[in-house]
Every structure is written in structure tokens, then in C-alpha cells.
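Preliminary data (for renewal application), zinc ion complex.
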Amino acid sequence: MFYSKSFINTSREDPKVAECRGHKLLLKANFLYMVSSGIYSYLPLGWRVLDKINKIIRSEMNLVGAQELFMSAVQPIDIWKKTGRDKDLEEVMFKFKDRKSREFCLGPTHEEEITEIVKRYISSYKQLPFVLYQIQTKFRDEPRPRFGLMRSSEFIMKDAYSFSLTQQCLEDNYQKMYKAYQIIFDKFKFNYFISEADPGAMGGSASHEFMVPAEIGEDVLYFCPKCKKYYKEEGKCLVCQCETKSEKVVEVGHIFKLGTKYSKAQGAFVLDQQGRRKPLIMGCYGIGVSRILSAVAETSSDSKGLIWPKTIAPFDATLLVLDKSQTQEALSIEALLEKECFSILIDDRKSPAGVKFNDAYLIGNPYIMIIGKNYRESAKIEVEKRETGQKFEIAKDKIKDFFRDEYNIK
Ligand SMILES: [Zn+2]
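Predicted structure:
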């Protein structure tokens, strides 16, 4: 991809609306466009990152046997009245009436809708268990939108729902999801931890939150540096009696054992082996997809700009062409690497070298390759690893091997 032909429009100035480091960098590096307070459009760079985040999530969800669907964002209020959550979530719901005066909302979440769908088709224990999931936009009329995608009115989530006959089966699904979440968050290179949480308005018997420590976090937990354990309450560490330290955290995932709250309220029953009528036992499993974009931007950057982990970077490398006569050579290097599935942003613009370096650091692809003035004699590409600042000189015929090594491809 040529930078000169791309829709990448970085800014030199810090955006005035930015409220925190990650928000500032995402706007300045042109990953996001702010439509209105709490509402964002994802520009091509941001969308590339979201696409990779979604691919990682999809692949792990599919591996545990979850099936993807896509539910409507517009939901009738009637289904919310069945669980009473039209009242519980009233303050954050975007509600409206259609031309026939029927009441609707823009879905802040989908437990009610998925339960309606499932009860329409499931009547016997033989059809159980299963897990359905979607990656979808959700809406909350946020009284105080803050920190860009961290607390926004429109956001993307992955939400999965498990349905089973027995508590044991819910346990099994929950454990599978818990493990899948660990794999997913490991791939995002987060320094995350898992804490037991209060199910709150979701209902159910137990839940776990996946948290990332960040300055802008709105929750506070207490951390034992020795045992690496987190506690809800300030109080010495229960294991080693050390003093705990408070830490601000951001929630990026949350899983719940919902039990029968929704199935009982909405009449989702099946017949068991003995022909008895039993409510479906549900679990639900959320990941804040757009929030992850923000959380990585917030926690992975330096004074020059963003530093994306290899797994979700918009491109694997930016290739700076400092001598216009080498543009063909750049294309040939790109072709070598694209054959191996590495994506390259070739900065072929007429801009001064300083501008190109600034943008390459700001955008934060994991590697910066430079075809410098002396490339014609040396035939060596300078490579800088964004994360560590390490520099390498790699001959063109070895560049493929270099990247394969860096990405641990055997
Ligand atoms: Zn301890």
C-alpha cells in the first residue's frame, strides 16, 4: 500500500478534544474520527486494527464451538419489559418510537433478544448445549462520555451466550470461555488480570472481569506486588499479609453465569430426559472490542507515538523510501514480504525524511524499514524495531527470513 494513495491524514498538532494519552494518539495518528462527543468513526488505520482484533476473537470463539450470528441493533421495548430491564437500564437506553408509535431501543446489550430467538427454535434437551456469539455495535446514552472509546455512547462488543440444561454444563462452557479469553487477551499482549466480580444488573450467580491496569481506569483494585493478586477491598494481602497498593484498571472483558434469570422471565424452557419442563441455563461472555483499541493505545506508546503489538498492528511494517528513484525497489521488497503474508505501508510521499519518520513512529507499526540514500551501493535495508528501538541492517535477499524469525514463523 502506498502512503501517497492512502487515506491516512495524520496531524501535527495535538487534538484539543483529547482527554488522555491513547485518545490523543488515536486522533492524531488518524485511527479515529470524532463525530460527536462519545461517538466515533473508525478510519482505515483504526479499522485495520479492529479487523485483526475481531479475527483473533472469531478464531478462538470458533475453536470452542461457538457459532456466529448477527442480531438487530433495533429492539422492541416489549422484550425488555419481560425481564424488567427496561427500567433497570432506562437511564442509558436510547429509546424512540416508530411511525406506528411502537417503542424501540438501540440495543445496549442482547440477552433479551437472544433468549427470544433461542426459545423460538429450542424445545428439547437433545438440542443442547450450544453457544452463539456476535460482534456488534451497542449503544448507551452515556451521561458523561470520556476518554474516547473507553466510555462512549456507541461501541463494538463481542457478546456470546451459552445455553445448557444443567448447571454442570454451564460450568463446562464457562471454563472453556474463561480459557479462550486468556488466549485472546494474551494475543493482545496485555498486562491483564482476572478478578471475581459482582454480576450487578446482569444477574446470575458469578462473574469474572478481565482488567487492564491503566491511568484512566475508573475502577480501583488493590494489588499485592509479591503474590500478584488483586483484591476488591483495601486490606492486607490475604495470602502473605503484605501491604497492598491501589491500582486503576479498565475492564476489557466480562463473563457471567447468568443462570435462569432470562429464560424464566421470557419463557425459554425445554423438556429434559424425563419429559419435565426446565428453564434454559445461560451464560454470557463479553469483550469490549473497540475499548481494546483504546486500551492498547493507552498502555503501549512512547513519546514518539503508538507501538502496536504485532498481532493487531495496522501494518507489519512501514517502509520509508528516502530516495524517490528507489520506489520500484520498495515495491519489489513489498512483494517479497506480501508473499509471506506481511503487510507493508510504503511511504513514497514527497515529504521530507523528518516528516516520514515522525509519521512512522506516530502510527506505530511494529517495524520501520528504511531504503536510505546508500541503498544503491549496500543493497541493505535498515530496520528498526519499534518496541525496543533495536536497529538492524538486512540484505534484501534476507529480509523475508528476518521477518519470519521476528514473527516466529517456522
Ligand atoms: Zn501477597
